[in-house]
Each structure stands twice: as structure tokens, then as C-alpha cells.
Specification:
heterodimer, A: Rossmann fold, 8-stranded mixed sheet, globular, B: 344 residues, alpha/beta, Rossmann fold, 12 strands
């Protein structure tokens, strides 16, 4: 249960573009234990999707992992051959994307596509009827009614929620130990989103599949995750269990993000929008990337990048908690002075 | 619907219908494809009082956007009435619309497709004046409009693709405000924006409401947004209103099983409130308005449905003070006790 399944250590990813080299991820560290649901949350451009793609070495051609390690079940992903990687994708780690219509081929039936997916990852050739039956079982498991007949339908004959269920069925064909879901419910209506989240939680409970859930929606993260990684400008600024992150966020960015979510309780008040904008990856400020939008920044925040600090089972990248700084130089926030309960 | 026009309502919609016929070409007819009509908006009635914000919520395909477009005359109504300050809007010709167009405007859903990529912001902001032939002395300057929505005057020379999502949204709002409307329909004004950008758009809309005395109809699928912003909430399901009432009342004590199911599905950014939250997820999917279920359109997904729900269409019952609900059994069922949810 508590073995680290995926360990990401100091991961650095850049994109080579005409405008220059974009540091998309910088020194990202976190781990996913067996059977755990970990959420990655942040605004657009913070590197969430790059992180998901880098874990499976599925980066766009101009993307490159330039540092750090991704260890999956004790093996370094960088050391794997193309063949080993192919086995890993699907059987070890599977991924579901936001838009099933761009992932499913419109000219083939879903059954054909799912059978192909199984053949691609198989060493020995199984009989057609065995593979077909397994496909029907997989569709039934994710709640496709009348799967034995629906297997011969094309993607356009399914609704958006059903297509996402099919994507999940494909991802689960080889019983991966880790499922990466990149904004898997973002395009769905609330009731369908809740159905898919429920399905993911059931898969996690029944099969012990660990899930890395990438989402911009704090509600979705709070709903299903045990641990949360908060990302900003390619950095993991805070990592901790879901209750600490939502009850007592340590990083000023996590706090600001949570405070900006509208809710009925805020009615009649001005929402705490975060001033300024996410910095461009081409012109990142030298110090803390959040400093110019942060209400607590001190001089040191603009010149030095804070390191990732451990604090009571949490990790946070902020000088508020850096005890190596002289008291006079340290930024201050009244909410950050109380000791974190163990 | 039996609801009487509300005294003093600025916008009064009664039994509004928008049916699209899917008349098909010869080949489709030869192949005997099913023809029929899509009942996108099917008998919707509500009032909006001056200065209030009505939140219109529903899932995709519920007819929210079509309802807004029908009221604004962008899609012809096939029946019913919509009155702005007593003036009938349904069936008006282009010329008759012109003086009214200045009083009722819309912020369109996606600035990417509603702002022409070929024009600079300054032109996009002057365009409403050109189209509506507004005399010069009644026009606001581009700078004034930009200032009103919190943009600097340098943005005037930019093209839409040079703007961030939040900035483009602000230009859309400025364009809608150019004619100094009284009623503003906002179609998903925060969809696709990051948390922080969405918060500043909502702050802007709130500030404009207070400064200009705007009346909003806010269309959204986001229950957190509607709970934050709307005074009253109307819930749509497959082209019909199922419930309308004060925001606080709806959120705390929904009367219609669909409203209850929708609220209990909404993800809340608080892990403590989410314990067991997914146990009673509404099963099934929203039916097509092409072939809606008989009787109550929610009955196939409703845990409380009985034969009456299958056979009889529930009327929108007026409970007074702007509270209405369309359910045969709302008085008998206790939504706090049982899961609102039928089989998957």
C-alpha cells in the first residue's frame, strides 16, 4: 500500500521553440504510492500537462527532459529501451486525455480499436474470441450498457460521457498500476463529471490502481485526491495531503488560488482575484516566480529562488518557512507563523 | 403556464418556445432518415426585476443559450412572448428591434469566435454604434469603454489574438456595454478561464452592476459561480424550467429532484464536504430535445418517479414571490432523506 510506485525527482523539462528555450518544468519532485490518488492542480501554462506527458515520455517533439529522474516501480524511465517503454505504457502506466474524440479514431469501431490496443501490447497472440470477450468485459466494467452490441459502434455513436468511459476502458485493458488522467472530466457536464469521478474512485478502490489526476478544478481535486501537488510556473510550489492543502495551505499561491474560487458563501463580497498575470516562461523572474503577485514577498523573494522545504509531511517552496534566513530578511505572514501540526 | 406577468418586471418571458425543424434534403428523405423537430426551448416563463441577477443553470443541451438567443431575437421564437418593459420582442422585424437592441445586449460565450480576428479592438468597440446608427453625441469613446472594463487604452490597437483569455472577455463585455443596455445576458462569462481570471471577471461584472444598475441574466453551468453571483436561480432541463426561486433557498432547500441532484454533483473545493459526496451521483444522461421523454422529462432519471410522472407533464406551479417548481410530487418528497438518484 505504501510503496512508492512513481517517484519524480528533480524533473526538468524544456521546450525548444523559435523564440528560445522554454523551461516548462523545473525541479519537480513528488511521489505516488501504490493505490494512491494524487492530484496535480494549477492554472493554464503551469506545466501540469507537460508533467503528465513527461512521465510517459510522450512529450511533443520539441520537448526534452534535461534533468532529474522518473522512477516507476524501481526502474528509471530514462534507461528504458523503446520496446520496454511500449510495455510500460499500457501495462504499467496508462493515460486518459481530456478530449476522447481526438484520441479515438472515427473510422474504426471502438471494438476494433480496443482489440488493436491489446494486440499492440501483447507478446503472445490470443484467439479473437478471447480478446473480444475481454473487450466486452472492459466496457461493461466502466458502465457501458449492452457492451456486447455497442462494441461494434463507431465513436460518434456515443455521447461525450460514454466516450470518456471508453477511454478509461482502453486505459484499463492491461490493468495498469498507475492511471494518469489529464483533465479527464473538464469537458463534461457536472452530472457526467461526477459519474466519471465516481468511476475513477471505484477503479482505485477495487483494483488498487493508483491515479495521478491532473486538473485545474480545485473542486474535482478536493473530491477524489488523497494528496495534492500545487504547480506554478513549472514548479511544484506545495505538496501535501488534501486536508492540509485545503484547510491550511502553506504557500501564498495555494492560499490565493483557493480564495479566488467563487462560492455562495462569498456572495456580496469582492472575490480575491490574484493581481497580475502568470509570468511568461520566456522571461521568468530570477527569484520566486510568484513574488510579483504575492502579498507577502520580501526583498529576498525577488532575488533568490526558494528551495523546496519539508514541513510536517508537506513540502513547500517559499521563504516564509526557510529558517536558514536571518529573521530580518524573512518574509512574514501572520497565518504562516503557527507551527504545523504533525 | 399560468403565471401572470409580474408587476414591475423589466423582462417578462411567457411560454416561450423555440423549435428547430430538422427538415432534410432529398437524399436524407430518400434514405428515410427520421425527421421531426428539436424542441430546444419548450414553454419557458420567468420574470426579471430591474437590478437583479437571474442565474440560468443547466447542463449542455438544456437550452440555456437558445433561450437567451431567442429573447434577443437572434433565433426566431416559434411561440410565446418576451416583453422588455412591456414591449413585445417576439416577432419584431429588424427595424423595430433597433431601438430595443440598445436596451438589451448579450456577452457571447466564446470571445474567440464572437470577436472578429480581422479587426482591432478599437473597431470592435465602435462597431455596435455603426450597426445601430448611434448619433456621435451618444457614443462612449473607446478609451472610456476600455476603462470601464479595466483595460488600458494601449489595448485599443491590438487584435483579438493578442489578448489573453481574460482580456478578450473584457472586450466582449465592453462591446455589450457600448450601447448602455439595461439588461445584459451573459453566456458562460467565466468558462475556459483560470480561477484567478474568472474571479476578476466576476468582480468586474459585480462592479458594473452596482455602478450602472445593470440587470443580468447569467447563463452558466457552474453552480459555484451562480451561487456567488445570482440573486435568483432558474434551473433548466431539456428545454424547460424545472424550478426557479431565490438563490439561497434553491441552494439550501431545492424542491425539484433534478435541482437536488445537480447540486449534490457539484464538486466543492473542500475535502471535508466531499465525504460520501459521490455515493448518490445522478445516473444516465440528459435526453435529446429531439425526442424528449413523455410526461416529466426528468422521470427516467428520477428516484421518485411514478406512473403519473410518465404520463402527465407537470406544470410550473407558481408559489408566489417568484418561486416556481414543476414537479408532481415536490410536496411529498423529502430530498434531505433519500438519495435523489435512480438506477444508472
Amino acid at each position: 500500500m505504501t510503496q512508492p510506485l512513481l517517484t519524480v525527482d528533480g524533473l526538468e523539462v524544456v521546450y525548444h521553440t523559435d523564440a528560445g528555450t522554454l523551461p516548462a518544468l523545473s525541479d519537480v519532485c513528488f511521489e505516488v504510492r501504490e493505490g494512491q490518488i494524487v492530484g496535480v492542480v494549477g492554472e493554464s501554462g503551469c506545466g501540469k500537462s507537460t508533467l503528465g506527458a513527461a512521465l510517459l515520455r510522450l512529450l511533443a517533439p520539441n520537448g526534452e527532459i534535461v534533468g532529474g529522474h522518473v522512477m516507476f516501480a524501481g526502474r528509471d524511465l530514462a534507461s528504458l529501451s523503446a520496446g520496454e517503454l511500449r510495455t510500460l505504457r499500457g501495462q504499467g502506466v496508462a493515460m486518459i486525455f481530456q478530449d476522447p474524440l481526438t484520441s479515438l479514431n472515427p473510422t474504426f469501431t471502438i471494438g476494433q480499436q480496443m482489440i488493436d490496443a491489446q494486440r499492440a501490447h501483447q507478446q503472445t497472440r490470443e484467439s479473437k474470441s478471447v480478446v473480444r470477450q475481454r473487450t466486452i468485459d472492459a466496457l461493461t466494467r466502466v458502465g457501458i450498457p449492452d457492451a456486447a452490441r455497442r462494441i461494434d459502434n463507431h465513436p460518434h455513436e456515443f455521447s461525450g460521457g460514454m466516450r470518456q468511459r471508453i477511454m478509461i476502458a482502453i486505459a484499463l485493458l492491461h490493468e495498469p498500476s498507475l492511471l494518469i488522467a489529464d483533465e479527464a472530466t473538464s469537458a463534461l457536464d457536472v452530472t457526467l463529471e461526477a459519474q466519471i469521478l465516481k468511476l475513477l474512485k471505484e477503479i482505485n478502490a477495487v483494483h488498487g490502481t493508483a491515479i495521478l489526476l491532473i486538473s485545474h478544478n480545485l473542486g474535482v481535486i478536493a473530491e477524489v485526491c488523497e494528496r495534492v501537488v500545487v504547480m506554478y510556473a513549472g514548479r511544484a510550489v506545495e505538496e501535501g495531503d488534501v486536508y492540509s492543502i485545503f484547510d491550511r495551505p502553506l504557500h501564498p499561491y495555494s492560499r490565493a488560488l483557493l480564495a479566488a474560487v467563487p462560492s455562495p458563501q462569498h456572495r456580496g463580497t469582492t472575490l480575491a482575484a490574484i493581481p497580475g498575470r502568470v509570468p511568461s516562461l520566456l522571461a521568468l523572474p530570477p527569484g520566486c516566480k510568484f513574488a510579483d503577485r504575492c502579498g507577502y514577498a520580501a526583498a529576498v523573494c525577488f532575488t533568490r529562488e526558494p528551495a523546496s522545504l519539508s514541513r510536517g509531511g508537506l513540502r513547500v517552496r517559499c521563504f516564509l518557512y526557510d529558517d536558514s534566513l536571518p529573521e530580518a530578511d524573512k518574509p512574514r505572514a501572520d497565518w504562516a507563523t503557527e507551527p504545523v501540526p504533525a | 403556464m399560468t403565471a401572470e406577468p409580474h408587476n414591475g418586471a423589466l423582462l417578462s418571458v411567457r411560454d416561450l418556445q423555440t423549435f428547430f425543424s430538422d427538415r432534410q434534403g432529398a437524399i436524407a428523405r430518400l434514405l428515410r432518415h427520421k425527421t421531426g423537430e428539436v424542441r430546444a426551448v419548450d414553454g419557458v416563463s420567468f420574470d426579471v426585476v430591474r437590478g437583479e441577477t437571474l442565474g440560468l443553470v443547466g447542463e449542455s443541451g438544456s437550452g440555456k443559450s437558445t433561450l437567451a438567443r431567442t429573447v434577443l431575437g437572434l433565433v426566431p421564437a416559434t411561440g410565446g412572448s418576451a416583453r422588455l418593459d412591456g414591449r413585445e420582442l417576439v416577432g419584431l422585424g429588424r427595424r423595430d428591434w433597433r431601438p430595443l437592441r440598445r436596451r438589451i445586449q448579450m456577452i457571447f460565450q466564446d470571445p474567440g469566435s464572437s470577436l472578429s480576428p480581422r479587426f482591432r479592438v478599437s473597431f470592435l468597440l465602435r462597431e455596435p454604434y455603426v450597426i445601430n446608427k448611434v448619433p456621435l453625441d451618444q457614443q462612449s469613446s473607446v478609451d472610456e469603454l476600455l476603462d470601464m472594463v479595466g483595460l488600458s487604452s494601449e489595448q485599443a490597437d491590438k487584435y483579438p489574438h493578442e489578448l489573453s483569455g481574460g482580456q478578450a472577455r473584457r472586450v466582449s463585455i465592453a462591446r455589450a456595454l457600448a450601447l448602455h443596455p439595461e439588461v445584459l445576458f451573459a453566456d458562460e462569462p467565466t468558462a475556459g478561464l483560470d480561477v484567478s481570471a474568472a474571479a476578476s471577471i466576476l468582480n468586474l461584472m459585480r462592479d458594473l452592476r452596482d455602478r450602472l444598475g445593470l440587470t443580468y441574466v447569467l447563463i452558466t453551468h457552474d453552480l459555484n459561480v451562480v451561487g456567488y453571483f445570482a440573486d435568483r436561480i432558474a434551473v433548466m432541463y431539456v428545454g424547460q424550467l424545472v424550478e426557479i426561486g431565490l438563490g439561497d433557498r434553491i441552494l439550501a432547500h431545492p424542491r425539484h429532484p433534478y435541482t437536488h441532484a445537480l447540486l449534490s454533483c457539484a464538486p466543492v473545493p473542500d475535502p471535508h464536504l466531499n465525504e460520501g459526496h459521490l455515493d448518490n451521483v445522478l445516473g444516465g444522461e440528459i435526453p435529446s430535445p429531439h425526442d424528449p421523454p413523455s410526461g416529466c422529462r426528468f422521470h427516467p432519471r428520477c428516484a421518485y418517479a411514478d406512473p403519473q410522472c410518465t404520463d402527465e407533464v407537470p406544470q410550473l406551479e407558481d408559489l408566489g414571490e417568484g418561486e416556481m417548481v414543476a414537479c408532481h410530487h415536490w410536496r411529498q418528497i423529502d430530498l434531505t432523506k433519500q438519495p435523489a438518484v435512480a438506477e444508472t
